[in-house]
Design a protein that fits this description.
alpha+beta, single chain, four-stranded antiparallel β-sheet
């Protein structure tokens, strides 16, 4: 995509941000409370894949706050996954700055971003296929060391999604 600038349009608590104004395009839609401090801030973030003549992201400016309910929507190739991978450190921006809780994470390795409290949940096809459902859930706690709290959190997840408890030991 040539231009992936985000242009926010806010009406009361609802927000629409256009990530690109040409095909393919992506938009971020959702609700936000501007009284809440920003958690993630993109400032003029661009990303360019090495073997491509196109920018995947160009000058993206985006503010996400705690409690935001958003959806990142767009066509294939619009930059949705690139935005998520750039936030989580799997891709490094070619320019611009990404801040998480007032600290730059633009050059931080992905594992340190996760340790700082920012993680990405993989889509269904990206789970560890040789692990059980429970083991996949436990992977989300690999940086934690308090096993009592981990088990408590697993039970909480199982209470929200009882089917996961029934399938806990299935691959």
């Amino acid at each position: 995509m040539q231009d992936a600038s985000v242009h926010p349009h806010q009406t009361s608590q609802r927000r629409l941000a256009v990530v690109s104004n040409q095909e393919p395009f992506a938009v971020i839609v959702g609700c936000s409370d501007s009284r809440v401090a920003p958690e993630i801030i993109f400032e003029n973030v661009s990303f360019h894949y090495q073997n491509s003549d196109k920018n995947s992201l160009k000058n993206v400016n985006l503010t996400l706050r705690a409690g935001d309910n958003i959806g990142l929507v767009g066509n294939n190739g619009a930059g949705k996954t690139t935005i998520l991978h750039t936030i989580s450190g799997l891709l490094k921006p070619t320019s611009g700055e990404i801040n998480f809780k007032n600290h730059s994470i633009s050059c931080m390795p992905a594992h340190k971003i996760t340790a700082a409290g920012l993680a990405q949940s993989p889509e269904g096809r990206l789970i560890f296929i040789n692990l059980t459902v429970k083991e996949n859930l436990e992977m989300g706690a690999y940086l934690r060391h308090n096993y009592a709290e981990i088990n408590e959190d697993l039970e909480f997840v199982f209470s929200l999604f009882p089917i996961l408890k029934e399938m806990a030991f299935q691959l």
